[in-house]
TrEMBL record:
It is found in: Cell membrane. Belongs to the UPF0702 family. The keyword ATP-binding does not apply. Its main location: membrane. The keyword Protein transport does not apply. The chain crosses the membrane at residues 26-45, 52-71, 77-100. PANTHER family: UPF0702 TRANSMEMBRANE PROTEIN YCAP (PTHR34582:SF6). InterPro entries: DUF421, UPF0702_alpha/beta_dom_sf. It is a multi-pass membrane protein. This is DUF421 domain-containing protein. It comes from Geothrix rubra. The lineage of its organism: Bacteria, Pseudomonadati, Acidobacteriota, Holophagae, Holophagales. Residues 101-170 form the YetF C-terminal domain.
Length: 176
């Protein structure tokens, strides 16, 4: 048997590169899937992006597998993979550039920071809207070196999912 084995009736060197679909269909499919995932992941909230729990990571892995066939239309060629990778990198770069140039688009894609605690008072509605528990909030407060919400001037949920906690300043409390 010749060194070039046959795969689907074509030599291996050819079958790796012969696209089953036109290149522009890969681009269109990648754009559609990218847009769909971007919007649906944005709707799940900031906390999902910045603080991946193990089940969140599993979800992202399963999502990538779930959308694979919708992007490649069953085409497993190297060329098809290259077209998809280039398309996804290009559209991601373009969205990054758009959000850098346009603050409205930045807010749409990335959201805006949310004040969760102001002068020791928790905004329960914002906490619920971000699907964040008081336990998660207190973990961020403790990470900032505080133990009581009364010592928090402001706690802000940033667009990247991190919680920044700023302590109240002033004289140290006197001992009784």
């Amino acid at each position: 048997m010749p060194t070039l084995a046959l795969l689907d009736g074509l030599p291996v060197g050819v079958s790796m590169w012969k696209l089953a679909q036109p290149w522009w269909e890969f681009v269109l499919r990648a754009l559609l899937v990218y847009g769909f995932l971007l919007v649906t992941l944005r709707l799940t909230g900031k906390r999902q992006v910045g603080q991946l729990a193990p089940f969140d990571l599993v979800l992202l892995l399963v999502l990538s597998n779930a959308v694979q066939n919708s992007m490649n239309a069953g085409d497993n060629t190297v060329g098809g993979g290259f077209v998809l990778v280039l398309t996804l990198l290009a559209v991601n770069g373009f969205v990054g550039w758009l959000t850098w140039r346009n603050k409205r688009l930045e807010t749409f894609f990335e959201g805006s920071p949310q004040i969760l605690v102001h002068n020791g008072v928790v905004d329960e509605r914002k906490l619920a809207a971000e699907r964040m528990t008081r336990h998660e909030l207190m973990a961020a407060v403790r990470q900032a070196g505080l133990t009581d919400l009364a010592d928090v001037r402001v706690a802000i949920l940033e667009t990247n999912g991190r919680i920044n906690v700023i302590a109240k300043t002033g004289p140290a409390p006197s001992a009784p």
